[in-house]
Amino acid sequence: MAQNDWKIAACLNGQSPVDSKGAPMHEAPVEEWSRVFEDVASEGFKYLELSDGWLKPSLLTSARKKEFLQAAEQTGIKIPSVHIQRASVIQPGLEKENLAYAHEAMEAAAELGVEVFSTGLHQPLTDAQKRAFWFWTAQGAKDPRNDPQTWKKAVSSIRELGKHAESLGMKMSLELYEDTYLGTAQSAVDFIQDVNLPNVGLNPDVGNLIRLHRPVEDWRMLYEMTLPYATYWHLKNYQRDEAPDRSWCVSLPSTLRDGIINYREVTQRAIELGYDGVFVCEHYGGDVLGVTGENARYLTKLLDRAKSRVES
After folding, report:
1. What is the pLDDT of residues 228-248, one digit of tens each?
2. Pairing verdict, β 200-203 and 233-235
3. Whether pLDDT at 177 is above 60
4. Given 47, 177, 178, 205, which is the most exposed site by the fewest CB atoms within 10 A?
5. 59 pLDDT exceeds 80?
6. What is the CATH number of domain 8-311?
7. Positive or negative CA dihedral for 28, 29, 34, 39?
8. What pLDDT is recorded for position 46?
9. Rounded distance, CA 246 to CA 216, Å?
10. pTM check: above 0.85
11. How far is Cα 206 from Cα 261, in angstroms, rounded to an integer?
């Protein structure tokens, strides 16, 4: 892989899900989409993760999908992935609806020509999380523990989606997230092994776990166990502090360089393991796009160096 040829994508965490007139983004005029693409390109990005937190691709008509892709192309942006969040296939009372939505989103993703369909088992934010300054400091929904039936249902539904993705020529990735069946290293690996499809792997978003204000697994161990199964990758970082007895923990968002995770070490390991998928730079708070742009430049340097070492 030549230098600067990495698929490093921007996230849309900081973008409004409605346009300047208050309409949802799937109904927005092309000019509104282009404005976002131009901002993304101005930070040096060539790739963009399309998240349904910004725009639901399944609500675009075929004609609007073409307009969307044309607008992206005109600003030099490619869409390698679609990310569907907080629509768990085992969310109580919405299992069938969320599974159907994932299938619809996958079909839309295929029309957009993406290579990865990303999702997870996390559910919508609770009222307490919506009220919190940082949502991860409040308790969210939990997947039931020691419940073989629910585990089996989750595996079955994800396998169904994985086979659909395979038929469309796409990889599928599942995001690490606290208190779900993808919330610890061992549980995530066990889950992927039970799904047992070659195109379905993990999104080792360890940042989702190390930001929690409670004791967490060591980030090195989390990556060592999950990177071998990675098919997609959200990267973000946090500064973290803990009491010696772990009676209190605190975290704050940071750049990739300045947080507790040593991404120089982690990217080297990922390249050694042969990871060559999409890297999505994420962040929360402030100028999300500006921080992720800085992260992308830092990440490119690390990846170039890691690749050079592996090839030498």
Report:
1. 999 999 999 999 999 999 999
2. unpaired
3. yes
4. 178
5. yes
6. 3.20.20.150
7. negative
8. 98
9. 10
10. yes
11. 9
